[in-house]
Amino acid sequence: MRASLHRADREHLAMKYTVSIELALPREQVVHLLADPAHLPMWLRGLVVHEPLDGVHGQVGTRSRVVLRSGGQEMEGTETITRREPADLHGIPRDTVVHFEREIVAEGMWSATRDRLTDAGPERTLWASENEYRFGSVPMRLLAPVLRGVFRKQSRQHMQDFRAFAEHGTDVRDATG
């Protein structure tokens, strides 16, 4: 009973939101761009380091060290790939939903991202991203409702940056300001 209550308390304190974006590219092309680690610095604003600690980038079970910089602050964490379906990203049937899921653990924070990519018509892809955050400190848990908008805005910015990269070749590292 105590473990169930404890889990329910954690669920209650979780910050969750979903953001989505439509891209003017076929799903298979979007999937390959997202899955290729060489492209991460081009669209993941603030990325300083993304290096596998064990495993192969993008494969289930792979753990990577991730360092992100935002607003003059750095956040370092460990990312673990928890789902990639289908495992083979070539020749994906049109009605198949592609899933990329990962967890990041950093000091005082745990987050999970569940990405779904679906065909949205000829040469179009819908990318929906469910995000969940849990914080270890009482002050951060209390700030979570306020931070929800900030986190959502940052997630949306990453998706817009990816769309600009995928559709037009725009590299966030070339942006000024």
UniProtKB/TrEMBL annotation:
SUPFAM superfamilies: Bet v1-like. Pfam families: Polyketide_cyc2 (PF10604). InterPro entries: Polyketide_cyclase/dehydratase, START-like_dom_sf. Gene3D superfamilies: 3.30.530.20. This is SRPBCC family protein. It comes from Actinomycetospora rhizophila.
